Amino acid sequence: MTDIFDRSLDDIKVEISDNKIEKGEEVNLTSKDPTMKNVIVAVGWQLNSFDADALDIDVSCFLLNNDGKTRMDEDFVFYNNLQDIDEAVVHNGDNITGAGDGDDETISIDLNKIPYEIIKVMFVLSIYRGEEKGQEMSSIRNGYIRLINVSNGQEMLRYEISPDVEISEGETAMRVASLNREGPKWHFETIGELVKSGLEEVATEYDIIVHAG
């Protein structure tokens, strides 16, 4: 099978400009670039060197229909299911430690391949076994999510989540942002909503049964 995505950002020279957006903002991506087809959603964070257990942050996404639900298990794309059934959304692999500079995890998206009944792609950041380890979202340092236009390597948007996770009181996940379809147009919306019971709570709301272990 031909791989339609470049799974590495090594060959993409990213131009970073003043594209920072805040919690609750929504940007019309189609207006910014009507030719945009393939995007990469990337997240990054830094380690606290004094932590006994390094944070294992995961980015996941849910393909949601007009009812705000997934249609099938494959609409939940994460480290144990790296792509949806249409190969429109591809998770490029789990980074357990967050070590190193730059993006820690990325998701590649072909907007033209997303089925029309999918009107929202929800992105969630979560701490793996956060409750078990006594970790919470406020432990994240310099966290961000950004969107890159693959055709030219340009960073279109960046949302720095650190100010919005500082208020965490035991939450281990965050609905961080979403891609929203409006007819032929796509919008990117920042959400920044902390979730008490982590990724399992979000998945259950979207009709995904999460098995422990």
Descriptive report:
This protein is mainly beta. The chain has a single domain, classed as sav2460 like domains (Lipoxygenase-1), CATH 2.60.60.30. 9% of the residues lie in helices and 36% in strands. The chain has four helices and eleven strands, in the order βαββββββαββαββα. It has helices at 29-32, 130-133, 162-165, 198-205, and strands at 26-28, 38-46, 57-64, 76-77, 89-91, 105-110, 120-127, 141-149, 154-160, 173-182, 185-195. Strands 1-11-10-7-3-4 form a six-stranded antiparallel β-sheet. A five-stranded antiparallel β-sheet has the order 5-6-2-8-9. A hairpin with a 2-residue loop joins β10 (173-182) and β11 (185-195). The radius of gyration is 16 Å and the shape is globular. The two termini are 31 Å apart. The model is unreliable at 1-16 (pLDDT under 50).
Question: Quick summary of this structure?
Answer:
With 213 residues, the chain is mainly beta. 9% of the residues lie in helices and 36% in strands. The strands form two sheets. A six-stranded antiparallel beta sheet has the order 1-11-10-7-3-4.
